[in-house]
């Protein structure tokens, strides 16, 4: 999911220990895009899947990738680091988040890799780029297109943009817990030391329209917090709807990749193509749509 500009900045509150009021709260000095990357994204694992699956389907390696709703473009940076001939374009509406990615993620690349990444501030339905082998729309960011006509138009634009033999990769989540109002917490280690709590909240779901409102909150060990650091006003698209719209957009074959389970009954991170899934409380799946 991209790293969108928060529409809830006035909800940011900090709880500072009265024992040391002059000491800045951890929430005051936190970088929300960095927290998001640590808590939500795993560019290496994502590109492992995309790179491997493209080779399996096409018998060759891809070179050119476009990351839609790219946020800080961490995935673009991972892509150009895989092979010296790889190129990437990242597209996002938010110029502030793109600037963050350029300053933090692109700046960490060597000059050669940095020159092979282009960031574009614009609407993914309107921008023009060279025809890539791969287009990505991950972390369900395309769910912000809540009307069927708007999502179909986006899928059509992706198909037109892809090179001959190109593949569109996207993801989705679901399960019966998706329709509930809930809050889930997870501790996240910080490589620079310490840890923080990532909180996912499903704050509203409307069954007639499929509208799903979610928030990401962060809580820190000093008692301070950043409520609603990110907010998402989505439509909860189901896999049959997504597959039907991809077919309507003209893709020749659409496949769903389902995650398996390890010996402890935990998700194993291995996604395989399936014709049917399991009615779990919560699941994550990848999709491929071939031009």
UniProtKB/TrEMBL annotation:
- What PANTHER family does the record tag this protein with? EXPRESSED PROTEIN
Q: Which InterPro entries match?
A: SAM-dependent_MTases_sf (IPR029063)
Q: Where is the composition biased (Basic and acidic residues)?
A: 1-13
Q: Which CDD domains match?
A: AdoMet_MTases
| Region (Disordered), start-end ranges | 1-23
Report the SUPFAM superfamilies cross-referenced here. S-adenosyl-L-methionine-dependent methyltransferases
> What's the superkingdom here?
Bacteria
**What name does this protein carry?**
Methyltransferase type 11
């Amino acid at each position: 999911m991209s790293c969108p500009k928060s529409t809830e900045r006035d909800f940011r509150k900090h709880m500072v220990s009265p024992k040391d009021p002059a000491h800045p709260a951890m929430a005051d000095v936190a970088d929300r895009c960095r927290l998001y990357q640590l808590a939500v994204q795993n560019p290496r694992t994502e590109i492992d899947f995309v790179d491997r699956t493209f080779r399996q389907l096409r018998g060759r390696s891809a070179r050119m990738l476009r990351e839609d709703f790219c946020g800080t473009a961490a995935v673009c940076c991972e892509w150009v680091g895989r092979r010296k001939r790889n190129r990437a374009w990242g597209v996002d509406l938010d110029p502030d988040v793109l600037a963050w990615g350029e300053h933090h993620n692109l700046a960490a690349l060597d000059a050669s890799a940095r020159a092979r990444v282009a960031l574009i501030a614009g609407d993914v339905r309107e921008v023009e780029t060279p025809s890539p082998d791969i287009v990505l729309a991950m972390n369900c960011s395309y769910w912000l297109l809540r009307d069927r006509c708007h999502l179909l138009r986006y899928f059509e634009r992706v198909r037109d943009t892809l090179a001959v033999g190109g593949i569109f990769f996207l993801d989705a989540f679901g399960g019966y817990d998706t329709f509930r109002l809930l809050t889930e917490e997870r501790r996240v280690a910080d490589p620079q030391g310490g840890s923080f709590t990532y909180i996912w909240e499903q704050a509203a779901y409307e069954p007639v329209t499929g509208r799903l409102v979610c928030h990401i909150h962060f809580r820190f060990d000093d008692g301070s917090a950043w409520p609603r650091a990110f907010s998402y006003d989505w439509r909860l698209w189901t896999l049959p709807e997504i597959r039907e719209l991809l077919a309507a957009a003209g893709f020749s074959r659409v496949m769903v990749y389902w995650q398996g389970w390890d010996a402890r009954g935990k998700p194993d991170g291995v996604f395989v193509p399936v014709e049917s899934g399991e009615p779990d409380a919560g699941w994550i799946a990848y999709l491929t749509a071939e031009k």
